[in-house]
């Protein structure tokens, strides 16, 4: 698998503050890549460097196998966190302008826009002023502006802020569709449920450093605690030595939940075999860490 | 390069399509025309004919004074006392009495009037009489008509030199007016269009569109595109003002032209009347300060003045608007602009103040230094240009202005690219100076 984007040892220094310190990461082609981190971790600084809005003090960025050059902005679609449109301009006019700034001719832009306007069912908006649209509608226009020039790499900074659940879903579907077409999406957010849902790869930044990165599945594997939860009625009693009951809580519905740790060399079946004669089991499952847990755990440890 | 044209196009079209632009463009010439129309009308209406009776006992002056739009002369054949009696009844404004022995005692000429007569009328009458007496005395002394004709040629030559002196003084009035007008226009437009640049930058920053745009174009291109777009708006407005004003004066001129024409003729004939018998030469007639100023304008180097005006307008605008743009980028709202606006606009405010001294002494040391210094030269040099400026000074001033705006644009661009991405932070001068030296 090729990497559409590689970032090598980036350093960015602002006066007294070092925003990025030796950050490296690779974004595989055709993936959805989550760029995570608490506020002020350096996500936006990194995104701005990739977009050539600012230049790094050290390190290099490789896009599609080439060193970053001015032409590359046409291959990137960027939806900044701080975003907006010219309020007094008409929707159509504005999108044509933004598309031309990305290097499309007026005719190309027109053709592309037509498809998007039909797809989003916003044909009647063409001659409306931006200020007459609702915030959600403006966000849709903004999304079209980001992707209309068919970039290979799409960078979305907090894309779902300001969207109602219906529109958020629409955008989510668009993101998945773009990925299926072979586009790469870098996706920076605080909302871990959307990371859970969409991302194939993640990188976690904290305090200007990269603290974690890789395929989401591998990271989850790495953070597995080897604990299982079980909902049951009855009395477990004492477990064989290998297993440990971590905690037991009484549920509202009369069932009891216990979390049990299984050592790596022991088998889950052994535990079930032991339990099956003693209690009535309603459900049994492995505790897989959520992205939220991983985020909090990693950032928390890092800050201690 | 293509993108910068797109930006210029957008900035230009957005502003030109605004209602306020259309209104200002139409209102400007209307105000100017209205102003002139009122002055013109007042001037023309004030010309009402005066009736002057000439009682000539000597018989030398009958029909020597020619009637015109301003004054109607009549020559009643009656004695002074009779004429005096009829004075009010006949509606005379003035009564001129020429005694029999006027040739020997010229000071016996009397002018009677109810409210006193205007200086111009009195001068005209006195000159006409003295001229006639002169002619008569010359003839009595045996000088023939031919010699007088020859002498008249000499008189003509003298009039030319006199006329030149008159032109000189009215020329300097014209230079003062034109110089100060140009300087003031530059001063005003630097403010008007500079503020437009600042507002535009702030709008982009507050709308949060700026980061979207600068992911496609360089911040410098965005800033430059905006500055050039607004410059074109300014030039368009000037052009339209000039065209509309000319149009209005042409149309308006034909409507009131008749009256204006009569007024002008009145001025000319009254001027010529001073030398009765002389060939009418409107070119050298001293037909009032206004007319000679208008005439003096023709003698100025208009193409040079227009070229300088355009150069200094653009240069001054570019120099200041870059700084205005930087202010717009550095702040979050209009109220914060105040603390930065003042020090930046101080030099040009100073320039318009200095201009009033320079206009009295265009070649003085103050005029020289302030017309070389790029922050004041657009205003001060325009004051000096109509009076004539040595070519090397003009060249030096222009080169420095170009270097000046390259310099301010460089500084402004560095503040701009940091400022536009900085939200919710109150900036200080210290902070700004740091931005200038940020890398990349």
Automatic annotation (TrEMBL), chain A:
Keywords attached to this entry: ATP-binding, Nodulation, Nucleotide-binding, Transport
All residue ranges annotated as the ABC transporter domain in the record: 5-232
Keyword Secreted appears in the UniProt entry: no
Transmembrane segment boundaries: none
Superkingdom to which the source organism belongs: Bacteria
InterPro entries, alphabetized: AAA+_ATPase, ABC_transporter-like_ATP-bd, ABC_transporter-like_CS, ABC_transporter_ATP-binding, DrrA1/2-like_C, P-loop_NTPase
Transferase among keywords: no
Single GO MF descriptor: ATP hydrolysis activity
Family of this protein: Belongs to the ABC transporter superfamily.
Record's protein name: ABC transporter ATP-binding protein
Species this chain originates from: Spirosoma profusum
TrEMBL record, chain B:
One Gene Ontology cellular component: plasma membrane
Transmembrane segments: 21-44, 177-197, 209-232, 238-257, 304-328, 340-359, 366-385, 391-416
Membrane topology: Multi-pass membrane protein
Keyword Cell membrane on entry: yes
Compartment(s) of residence: Cell membrane
Species per Swiss-Prot/TrEMBL record: Spirosoma profusum
Name used for this protein in its record: ABC transporter permease
Keywords attached to this entry: Cell membrane, Membrane, Transmembrane, Transmembrane helix
ABC-2 type transporter transmembrane domain mapped to chain residues: 19-413
MF-aspect GO terms: ABC-type transporter activity
């Amino acid at each position: 698998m090729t990497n559409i984007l590689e970032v090598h040892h980036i350093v960015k220094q602002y006066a007294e503050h070092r925003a990025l310190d030796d950050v490296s990461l690779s974004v595989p082609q055709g993936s959805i890549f989550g760029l995570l981190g608490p506020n002020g971790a350096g996500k936006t600084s990194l995104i701005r460097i990739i977009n050539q809005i600012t230049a790094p003090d050290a390190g290099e960025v490789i896009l599609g196998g080439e060193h970053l050059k001015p032409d590359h902005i046409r291959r990137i679609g960027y939806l900044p966190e701080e975003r907006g449109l010219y309020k007094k301009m008409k929707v159509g006019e504005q999108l044509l302008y933004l598309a031309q700034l990305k290097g499309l001719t007026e005719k190309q832009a027109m053709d592309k826009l037509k498809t998007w306007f039909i797809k989003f069912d916003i044909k009647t908006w063409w001659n409306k002023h931006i200020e007459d649209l609702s915030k959600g509608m403006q966000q849709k226009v903004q999304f079209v502006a980001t992707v209309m020039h068919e970039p290979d790499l799409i960078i979305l900074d907090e894309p779902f802020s300001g969207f109602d659940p219906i529109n958020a879903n629409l955008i989510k579907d668009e993101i998945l569709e773009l990925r299926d077409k072979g586009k790469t999406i870098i996706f920076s957010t605080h909302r871990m449920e959307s990371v859970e849902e969409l991302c194939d790869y993640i990188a976690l930044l904290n305090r200007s450093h990269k603290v974690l990165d890789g395929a989401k599945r591998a990271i989850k594997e790495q953070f597995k605690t080897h604990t299982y939860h079980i909902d049951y009625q009855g009395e477990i009693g004492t477990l064989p030595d290998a297993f440990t009951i971590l905690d037991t809580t009484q549920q509202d519905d009369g069932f009891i939940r216990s979390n049990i740790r299984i050592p790596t060399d022991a088998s889950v079946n052994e535990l079930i075999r032991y339990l099956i004669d003693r209690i009535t089991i309603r459900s049994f499952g492995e505790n897989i860490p959520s992205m939220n847990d991983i985020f909090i755990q990693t950032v928390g440890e890092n800050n201690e | 390069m293509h993108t910068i044209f797109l930006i210029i196009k957008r900035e230009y079209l957005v502003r030109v399509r605004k209602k306020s632009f259309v209104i200002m463009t139409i209102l400007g010439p209307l105000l100017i025309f209205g102003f002139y129309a009122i002055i013109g009308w007042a001037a023309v209406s004030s010309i009402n004919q005066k009736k002057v009776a000439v009682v000539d006992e000597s018989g030398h002056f009958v029909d020597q004074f020619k009637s015109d739009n301003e004054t109607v002369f009549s020559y009643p054949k009656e004695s002074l006392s009779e004429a005096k009696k009829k004075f009010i009844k006949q509606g005379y404004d003035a009564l001129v009495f020429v005694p029999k022995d006027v040739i020997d005692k010229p000071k016996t000429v009397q002018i009677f009037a109810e409210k006193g007569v205007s200086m111009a009328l009195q001068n005209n009458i006195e000159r006409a009489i003295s001229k006639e007496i002169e002619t008569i005395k010359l003839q009595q002394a045996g000088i023939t008509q031919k010699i007088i004709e020859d002498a008249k040629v000499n008189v003509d030559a003298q009039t030319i030199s006199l006329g030149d002196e008159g032109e000189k003084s009215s020329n300097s009035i014209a230079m003062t007016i034109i110089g100060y007008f140009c300087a003031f226009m530059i001063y005003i437009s630097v403010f008007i269009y500079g503020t437009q640049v600042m507002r535009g930058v702030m709008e982009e920053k507050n709308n949060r569109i700026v980061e979207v745009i600068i992911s496609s174009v360089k911040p410098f291109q965005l800033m430059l595109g905006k500055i050039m777009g607004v410059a074109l708006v300014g030039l368009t407005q000037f052009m339209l003002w000039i065209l509309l004003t000319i149009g209005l004066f042409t149309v308006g001129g034909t409507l009131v032209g008749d009256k204006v024409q009569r007024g002008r003729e009145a001025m000319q004939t009254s001027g010529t009347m001073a030398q009765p018998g002389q060939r009418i030469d409107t070119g050298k007639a001293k037909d009032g300060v206004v007319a000679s100023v208008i005439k003096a304008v023709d003698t100025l180097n208009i193409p040079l003045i227009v070229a300088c005006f355009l150069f200094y307008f653009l240069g001054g605008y570019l120099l200041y608007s870059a700084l205005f743009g930087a202010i717009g980028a550095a702040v979050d709202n209009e109220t914060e602009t105040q603390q930065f606006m003042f020090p930046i606009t101080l030099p040009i405010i100073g320039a318009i103040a200095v201009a009033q001294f320079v206009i009295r002494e265009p070649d003085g040391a103050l005029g020289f230094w302030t017309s070389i210094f790029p922050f004041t030269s657009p205003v001060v040099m325009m004051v000096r240009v109509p009076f004539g400026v040595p070519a090397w000074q003009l060249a030096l001033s222009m080169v420095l202005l170009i270097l000046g705006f390259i310099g301010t644009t460089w500084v402004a661009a560095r503040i701009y690219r940091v400022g536009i991405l900085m939200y919710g932070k109150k900036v200080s001068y210290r902070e700004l100076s740091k931005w200038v030296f940020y890398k990349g």
